[in-house]
Amino acid sequence: MTRFTRRTALASVPATGLFGAAAAHVGPASAGAPRPAAPPGSGGVRFAFLADSHADPENAENMAALKAVLAEIETFDPTLVIHGGDVTEHGTAAEFDAFDSAVPEALRERIAAVPGNHETRWDATASRLRHERIGEDVRVVDADGVRVILADTTTYQQEVAWWSDSALAEVEEAMQRSKNIPRILVTHFPMGEGYYYVANQQDFEDVVAKHPIMLHLTGHTHRELLTRVNRRDQLEAAAVKTVAAYYELTGDIADLQVTRVEIPDLEVPAQTVRTPVASYDLRPEHGTDTWLPKNAEVTDQGETVSVDVKLPGSFRGAVDATFYDASIYAGRNDELEWVTLPGSRGRYSGQLEAAEIAQGAHRVHVRVRPEDDTGNRLVTVPYLREETGIAWETPVAGMVQGAVATVGGGDEELLVVGDSSGQVTALDHAGAVRWTSTVEGEIRHDLVPLEDGAAVAVPDTAGYLHRLGADGSAQWSCATGAVFGADPGTGVVDGAQVLFATAGTTLHAIDAGSGTVLWTAELPASSMGAPTTDGTHVYLGVGDGAAHALDARTGENVWRTSVTEREGSYQRFIYGPWNDAVTVLPDGGVLVSGISDTWCLDPADGGARWRFDGSFQYAREAVTSAGDLVMADERGRVVRLDPATGAELASHQTAERILDEGFVLVDEVVYTASHSGLISAVDLSSGAIETITRVANVPVLARGAAFGDHIVFADLAGTVHAVERV
């Protein structure tokens, strides 16, 4: 069976000279480690490149296209087959097996892949399945005299991409140890001018400015597009799923020819159309890029922002600037409004109109357009605008994706944050660290306060649920025997607080006081949102496209209600309530949201009470002191509804999208956080909307909390921000 494991992806192919896994894996460099010699090759390059196959055993058309393309690649007989990600439709074991079944025997040891967002967005295994089937986050394959660096920029259970510190360090190490070897980079997401798929693209550019990559192969967009930036050529591949095509990379290092091979009629797969695409020179360039700015300064001037760029005096060309478009979430803007900066002899200065820009953290793109044929350069410069609106900021040890929680009370109230390093950090009202604790795995999901703040429940990706006291003391750990890839929920059953946590497809009911497993129940699919209970039933959204009710005391099934009309496992999963935190309303109604709408269901039988259009799945709901229901959709709209009927009482449009980070309701004011950290306050009484600040140039993916006199949100890079209330 073909597996996209690290071992297979780096396996030695005797006929073609691939290195084995141990030789090719990039890890921390030892002091004085020698650079590898140029890898052996036949004197010519012979690679195949494909992307976005979306293997799905339930989709005959997808599988037919994939099989036809792989059969044609087998005829081509390449040294290496490179896959640019979205190998599967939504990352299940059955889909990986379907891809495996389509691979001809002759290609089984030649495939190297990167994961795409379709392998990570709906992953309930905390990355374990994709690591098993595709490989480690950064891998290296040396073949035909070329070093191919495969890097994973996906973000766990998110659409937006991110270069982790460890991935960047390994990529840099791979390039440092191959200065004289031609290099090709492979990632799923493209980068460059107008691209906002990777939220920290400049961090990557800082690395490759020292170690240039000549060719970057990507997927994701399903379109063929050739671009060039910072001396790097980029090829976005047409999707196998939609075009039934792949690319042949042949020739020598100085003249690598790329040809698209398309199968226009799957009924006649032997008839192909061959189209020359481009030719590339892979010979490494050494030395500093002459036309990258020596210095680029951005300064807030109130109504404007000044941009000053310094280049060598010999530069001939133009320099432009524009604001980073923080409103784009994991997408692209082809219509950025560039302003040309006046200047000459290497000094260019100008102004950008900034009256409509919020206070806080921002970025400006600087584009250099030399008159020679080397292509544009792009740098992105951060700056702070006016007052930040932030009372304090505290970094923690790793990335933050799960909701923060509060423990204690009054002057002893603490904010508890879990991060990807497995560290739990408690902060006081001034942002000072009061204690830390470490758990077995990464923390990627919500923390849950217990017993009115006496303790906090912490889920980790090793499959443990931990209870920590308000002082950080470890009180119990419950092993579920499977990976946690979901937010836990809680509620009271027979007077005792119970935790509900899904590991894989098993729902666990755990006594919050002792950590004892009360019962388990098998679900028909994975579930990643937080369950809840009214004391009689447990309610949760499941990846079969339905809301489920189970007996709160035994875990036995009570009812199931489908909330999507889609068909097929993939469609029902993504359009259903797979990630929804179910809410029980004051009148007992069960609120469940999918991608397209929200349903209020009867707790007794799951019958529909009312339905409301909109994508409200990500942000958790809240109820005002007056009893109104408040929800936020992913387009940034905050609505107030009558919970009994679903009638809309008011609607307020904020500036940017609202996803898992959601909002915090305090004293009839809704504090929203956008995906890019823009904090706004919506006064439900007056309808007034005030933009407070943008907390960071980093995605905010974790739900915040009211803490003392502040609203607190943590960003993906691991900084906790306390925002001043209005």
From TrEMBL:
What keywords are assigned to this protein? Hydrolase, Signal
Q: Which PROSITE patterns match?
A: TAT
According to the UniProt entry, its GO molecular function terms are: hydrolase activity
Q: Where is the signal peptide?
A: 1-26
Q: Does the keyword Zinc apply?
A: no
Q: Which Gene3D superfamilies match?
A: 2.40.128.630, 3.60.21.10, YVTN repeat-like/Quinoprotein amine dehydrogenase
Q: Does the keyword Signal apply?
A: yes
Pyrrolo-quinoline quinone repeat domain ranges (all copies): 464-610
User: Boundaries of each Calcineurin-like phosphoesterase domain copy?
Assistant: 46-223
Name this protein carries in UniProt: Predicted phosphohydrolase
Q: Which organism is it from?
A: Brachybacterium faecium (strain ATCC 43885 / DSM 4810 / JCM 11609 / LMG 19847 / NBRC 14762 / NCIMB 9860 / 6-10)
